[in-house]
Amino acid sequence: MADNLYRVGTIVNTHGIKGELRIIPITDFPEERFKKGAKLFLKKSSDSKEFIVESSRKHKNFILIKFKGYDNINDVEQYVKSELFSNDEVKPKLKDGEFFYSQIIGLKVVDEQIGEIGTIKEIMELGPNDVWVVKSPKYDEVLIPYIDDVVKKVDLENEVINVEIPDGLID
């Protein structure tokens, strides 16, 4: 298996009976990661395996993917709850205000009025904007929409995100 692997998704279920798998993407560029011919690696426990994407398509908040040579639900059921990895680092040019997930996850979130809220643990793609999941010792889990009214500044150099939490977002 390749040395530098990037986690790109989690297999959450099968889809239909023809070998498709339902993936929650964990990548900035799902259209690149899961395109036809892409090489993906699967890790489950201590076992690992290489696959080639035969087809993929977006379905609701998931990616449906089919691997070459796996044409039946019985061939792929064993891979449910496995992590998918890629060895290709896709790094296109970003516009102002755009970031790679890997740059955001792990950053400290601070509100000028409230103080430190916690650390970003996950990014969810939900419709028109992403939602950043912040793990907080004081508030447990806080969901922060990535919109200009809330996220005021992303300081990658100092690893801090300044936010302005609207009333009612945190109890």
List the main descriptive attributes of the protein structure presented here.
3 helices, six-stranded antiparallel barrel, six-stranded mixed sheet
What are the SSEs and their pairings?
Elements lengths: L5 E10 L4 E6 L4 H4 L5 E6 L2 E13 L2 E6 L5 H4 L6 E4 L14 H4 L3 E4 L3 E12 L2 E8 L3 E6 L5 E5 L4 E4 L8
Parallel strand pairs: 7-12
Antiparallel strand pairs: 1-2, 1-6, 2-5, 3-4, 3-6, 4-5, 7-8, 8-9, 9-10, 11-12
Give structural notes.
The model has no long low-confidence stretch (mean pLDDT 88). β3 and β4 form a beta hairpin. 20% of the residues are buried. The strands form 2 sheets. This protein has a 6-stranded antiparallel barrel. A 6-stranded mixed sheet has the order 10-9-8-7-12-11, with no helix packed on it. It is 7% helix and 49% strand. By secondary structure, the chain is mainly beta. The N and C termini lie far apart (46 Å).
